[in-house]
Design goal:
299 residues, mainly alpha, 3% strand, RuvA_2-like, Endo/Exo/Phosphatase_dom_1
Length: 299
């Protein structure tokens, strides 16, 4: 084969042979020049411009290289995603085939959602290897991953069962008993007991409405839970014979009211019944029924 090329070489003229020789020589020279330049260009530039290649320059080069490495790693990072919203492009990037993507899109067109990795594989028919690689990045809504326990159905239209209230005696009720009533806390329950101790027990349940601070609604609620079953023994005072000092000790009366009672009695005669007390100025009319329980109107 080489003999054929050698024979053809002799058919060239002398000037063609010379030109071919110089062409080969130029090609070899260029190759040698490029090789030499690539090996000595860096060192020659450093020798020419030593001020450019400082420690600051190399520090910047290292910083740029590190940024490039971080950028490349970030580009390859997979963030958690909801597989229900994989698009054609996203599926292609994740290595899904066209058929697998089409199956998912067709499933989603029916307004259905994938709720687990196994269900995703059943719909798309992806391989086990693909599922093992990308399913750790699946992110489903909280109501899918952490479903709330089902609440028992409550029929609010059903009439509530009325539990009868059995009233207890107000004179034996404890603070815990009193606090079972709505809006009666430790403060008011303590006030009720102190008021009871002050009078030696309640003779009427109506006395609760005169305790300061308790609203009418709460008092009515107290009437449902309590009543006077065991009333304290009261020694009734004869209103027509009692002195001012004796009358002022009666619950809800004071010195000034007692003085007016004695004054009215001395000027108008004995009291026949409790209605006679209504003629006294500034008498606590709203408490007359309770005050009369402590009085006797006979001569």
């Amino acid at each position: 084969m080489f003999s054929n090329y050698r024979k053809k070489f002799y058919y060239y003229t002398k000037s063609q042979k010379r030109g071919l020789f110089f062409l080969i020589l130029i090609v070899i020279s260029v190759q040698l020049l490029v090789y030499y330049y690539s090996r000595h260009s860096d060192s020659s530039i450093r020798d020419r411009y030593p001020s450019l290649f400082t420690d600051e320059y190399y520090a910047r080069v290292r910083m740029i290289d590190s940024i490039r490495a971080i950028t490349q790693s970030t580009r390859d990072t997979i963030y958690p995603f909801n597989p229900n919203f994989i698009t054609d492009y996203r599926g292609f990037i994740l290595g899904m085939s066209t058929a697998e993507i089409d199956r998912l899109l067709a499933f989603r067109k029916e307004n259905k959602y994938v709720n687990s990795a196994k269900e995703f594989q059943r719909i798309t028919l992806v391989s086990d290897e693909w599922l093992a690689q990308y399913s750790p990045y699946f992110k489903f809504p909280d109501w899918v991953t952490n479903p709330k326990p089902k609440q028992e159905y409550i029929d609010y239209n059903k009439p509530k069962e009325v539990v009868p209230i059995v009233p207890i005696c107000i004179n034996s009720a404890t603070q815990d008993d009193l606090q079972k009533v709505r809006d009666i806390g430790p403060y008011y329950s303590e006030r009720i007991i102190k008021e009871r101790e002050k009078y030696g027990g309640f003779v009427s349940i109506q006395q609760l409405k005169f305790i300061y601070g308790i609203s009418e609604e709460v008092v009515n609620e107290l009437y449902r839970y309590f009543k006077v079953i065991n009333a304290p023994s009261v020694v009734q005072l004869n209103v027509n014979e009692a002195s001012i000092n004796q009358l002022k000790e009666i619950p809800y009366m004071n010195y000034y009211i007692a003085r007016e009672v004695v004054k009215h009695r001395s000027m108008n005669g004995d009291f026949v019944n409790k209605e006679g007390l209504l003629q006294i100025e500034k008498f606590p009319i709203d408490k007359i029924d309770i005050i009369s329980l402590y009085l006797r109107f006979t001569n």
